[in-house]
Write a structure and sequence with these properties.
single chain; 33% helix; 274 residues; 10 strands; globular; alpha/beta; two-stranded parallel ribbon
Length: 274
């Protein structure tokens, strides 16, 4: 589905999709093919930024060897363990007008990117994919323990984020200036980092729009209820404490920029490790 944006310079990357990756060499090739194809259909300059989070399985090589195409792919390195820190690395390195992230397993169908872009054009400061949205299509194979844990977690999260019904779907996109404001001070690098990001966005007065997603529970999730569940609850409590005293500047209105629907060609670009 092609998006019809206002007019501007074709040199500007309109949408940058950050993909945090830890030992994703096996499924990343298919993910890049599907994600690049979905972005190419938008009809505006887009980019995929893969952030290798200290992998040891050849994840970086997959990106370096990505074939040329209408949507360029670049590689960044993040040596600090944690999905949140990997996403932060990619977001703060982006010069695109809009930037966000999706998971390397592509559990959320990338077809939703067209709606994301339209909402951002229409004035949303952030677009949040939500499996709890009544129109979402969710195929999950979680255990009863994990489902009940998710219910309890959402209850705890409501103390921090009140404007969206679900915070943990790995599909969120922002105006670049808003993204920088909420990711720059990020302190939580674990699986609860989304809570801190959205909590900071709400406190800055950002307009958050929740959208339905088509989501499939892909095998191989890095999240373990036993190993990570309790830590996520601890992290939410910490985030709540941090944000109670956080000095968050208000989000400023966006001055509309024109965008020419023109996808530039490109191949893999490699970011140097620190």
């Amino acid at each position: 589905m092609e998006v019809s944006p206002p007019d501007v310079s074709s040199e500007l990357v309109v949408l940058d999709v950050v993909v945090p990756a830890y030992n994703e060499a096996l499924r990343l090739p298919d993910t890049l093919v599907l994600l690049r194809a979905a972005l190419a259909e938008l009809g505006v300059p887009c980019r995929v930024t893969v952030v290798d989070n200290a992998s040891d399985d050849g994840t970086s090589a997959v990106v370096v060897n990505a074939p040329p195409g209408p949507v360029p792919v670049r590689l960044l390195w993040c040596g600090e363990p944690g999905k949140g820190f990997a996403v932060r690395r990619g977001v703060l390195a982006s010069d695109a007008r809009y930037v966000g992230f999706c998971d390397a397993d592509l559990a959320t169908a990338p077809a939703a990117l067209a709606q994301v872009l339209n909402l951002l054009y229409d004035g949303a400061d952030a677009v949040v994919g939500s499996r709890a949205h009544p129109e979402s299509v969710v195929e999950e194979r979680h255990s009863v323990l994990r489902r009940w844990g998710a219910v309890a977690f959402r209850s705890a999260v409501r103390q921090v984020v009140r404007g969206v019904s679900e915070t943990q779907c790995g599909f969120k996109f922002f105006r670049n200036d808003v993204a920088r404001r909420v990711f720059a001070p990020l302190r939580c690098g674990g699986f609860a980092f989304d809570v801190e990001v959205l909590g900071r966005a709400e406190r800055a007065g950002a307009r958050l729009v929740e959208i339905p997603v088509s989501w499939v529970d892909v095998p191989g999730s890095r999240f373990s209820p036993v190993r990570h569940g309790w830590q996520s609850f601890v992290d939410v409590a910490k985030i709540n404490w941090w944000l109670r005293s956080a000095d968050v500047a208000p989000v400023m209105p966006l001055v509309a920029l024109p965008v020419t629907p023109d996808v530039t060609g490109g191949t893999a670009a490699v970011g140097m490790r620190p």
